[in-house]
């Protein structure tokens, strides 16, 4: 896997105990319907985007995720 280098976005692991956070994130969806889960994710994204506040970082994050998917 080729690691993309970004001008503004930190793409290396930069979170303490990432597996624990992932488990916490998954558990936050417990007992939510699919629609509620999608709304939860959207709200979380907006809260974190607001916290980051830097449009260059946010744009690179969108590109990073968008480019990680391949269309068939």
Describe the structure.
The chain is mostly helical and 72 residues long. It has a domain at 32-72. Helices cover 60% and strands 0% of the residues. The protein has three helices and no strands. It has helices at residues 18-28, 34-52, 55-67.
Task: List its salient traits.
mainly alpha, 3 helices, DUF2783, globular, single chain, DUF2783 domain-containing protein, 72 residues
Strand and helix layout:
Elements: H1 18-28, H2 34-52, H3 55-67
Protein name: DUF2783 domain-containing protein
Organism: Alteromonas gilva
Pfam family, one: DUF2783
Summarize the structure.
It comes from Alteromonas gilva. The chain is 60% helix and 0% strand.
- Count of runs of 4 or more consecutive helical residues: 3
Share in helix: 55-70%
Instruction: Let me know the average pLDDT.
Output: 91
Largest sheet: none
- Quick one: how many beta strands? 0
Gyration radius, rounded: 14 Å
Beta-strand percentage? under 5%
Which runs of at least 5 residues are low in confidence (pLDDT < 50)? Answer: none
Give the N-terminus to C-terminus distance in angstroms.
19 Å
Structural class: mainly alpha
Q: What is the H/E order?
A: HHH
Q: Looking at the structure, what is the overall shape?
A: globular
Pfam families: DUF2783 (PF10932)
Organism: Alteromonas gilva
Protein name: DUF2783 domain-containing protein
InterPro entries: DUF2783
């Amino acid at each position: 896997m080729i690691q993309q280098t970004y001008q503004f976005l930190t793409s290396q692991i930069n979170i303490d105990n990432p597996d624990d956070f992932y488990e916490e994130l998954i558990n936050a969806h417990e007992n939510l319907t699919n629609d509620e889960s999608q709304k939860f994710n959207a709200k979380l994204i907006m809260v974190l985007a607001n916290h980051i506040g830097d449009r260059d970082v946010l744009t690179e994050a969108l590109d990073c995720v968008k480019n990680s998917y391949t269309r068939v």
